[in-house]
Write a structure and sequence with these properties.
This protein has about 300 residues and is α/β, with parallel strands linked by helices. The protein folds into three domains: about 60 residues, Orthogonal Bundle (Arc Repressor Mutant, subunit A); about 100 residues, D-Maltodextrin-Binding Protein, domain 2 (3-Layer(aba) Sandwich), CATH 3.40.190; about 100 residues, 3-Layer(aba) Sandwich (D-Maltodextrin-Binding Protein, domain 2). The chain contains eleven helices and twelve strands. A five-stranded mixed beta sheet has the order 4-3-5-12-6, with helices on both faces. It has a five-stranded mixed beta sheet with strand order 9-8-10-7-11. Helix 1 packs across helix 2. The N and C termini lie far apart (about 60 Å). The model has no long low-confidence stretch (mean pLDDT about 90). Belongs to the LysR transcriptional regulatory family. It comes from Acinetobacter soli.
Length: about 300
């Protein structure tokens, strides 16, 4: 087997990532034939088949997945090398990618602004996405850091901080249910109920309890925007959200209250700050991680 050419792997990586040779060619600003040629030469050099062609495009073979794994690790090490060299010269430049659920925006916005003022040459990229997408981005190295609600156990994930964030019923303080505590799951269907969609950790917890109790919730609104769910509750509906989403910023939601639901699973949910297990963070990302852990601990104890 000959020397591995990272430049050829780049063409293969883009083709698999984009799903087709033509899309990779557009991204790399080259002719499709150039992409095909580089992949073919790489297959010859490694003596393996790297891609399978399907009607919907291409995907990596088992051998191809190993090459992709190598290339992703190579890119991470390259990023670390450049950052460490810059640190030796007293420079602070680079990019940090963060993925988190919408419910954490108000908690971290100030922190990110503070970080940017201290390290103006570090560009932050923040993705707001569902719990499933946060996990995917972190495990596939698309994000350095993740902030996620009650993730399923994953051997590829390392949790740096777990915070108790119970799932509660959110409603107007003058709603009839506000006089009842704790509230049974079955009582929710008698009201205008709004829930997140199934890609959210919130809905996955609800599904677990539905399976345990045999009670199936029938929301009148499904929405992947937490601000909309809160507005729905302010106007007489009810929703289920982590308690902290209104308690940490009570001045923004003076008419909303959070009440417990009568099932232990709802009281055991947690938020986690995560990275991929085994990923070595550069100085900048590691600094932001420690700032994030400190800030979230502080908010949780206030």
């Amino acid at each position: 087997m000959s020397y591995v050419h990272e430049n050829r792997i780049k063409f293969f990586f883009e083709a698999v990532n984009k799903g087709s040779v033509r899309a990779a060619a557009d991204a790399l600003d080259v002719a499709p034939s150039a992409v095909s040629r580089q992949i073919s030469q790489l297959e010859q050099e490694l003596a393996v088949t790297l891609i399978e062609r399907h009607r919907r495009g291409i995907k990596a073979t088992e051998a191809g997945e190993e090459v992709l794994k190598y290339y992703k690790a190579y890119l991470i090490q390259q990023e670390l090398l450049l950052e460490n060299l810059q640190s030796l010269q007293g420079l602070q430049k680079g990019h940090i990618f963060i993925a988190m659920g919408e419910g954490y925006i108000d908690d971290v916005a100030g922190l990110l602004s503070e970080f940017s003022s201290q390290f103006p040459e570090i560009k932050l990229h923040l993705s707001i996405c569902s719990s499933n997408e946060v996990i995917r981005k972190v495990t596939e190295d698309e994000a350095h850091l993740g902030l996620v609600f009650n993730p399923a156990r994953d051997p590829k994930i390392r949790s740096h901080l777990a915070m108790d964030h119970p799932l509660s019923i959110i409603l107007h303080k003058e709603h009839p249910l506000a006089q009842i505590s704790p509230i049974e799951l079955s009582q929710l269907n008698q009201n205008r109920l709004a829930l997140t969609d199934v890609s959210h950790g919130i809905r996955q917890i609800i599904s677990q309890v539905e399976n345990l109790t045999g009670v199936v919730l029938t929301p009148t609104l499904e929405c992947n925007n937490l601000s909309t769910l809160k507005a729905y509750a302010i106007n007489g509906g009810i929703t289920l959200l982590p308690k902290f989403t209104i308690e940490h910023h009570a001045h923004l939601y003076p008419d909303l209250i959070a009440l417990p639901l009568h099932h232990p699973t709802f009281a055991q949910t947690k938020s986690h700050i995560i990275t991929r297990l085994g990923r070595q963070l550069g100085n900048a990302a590691n600094t932001l991680l420690h700032m994030l852990v400190y800030e979230m601990k502080k908010r949780d104890h206030d």
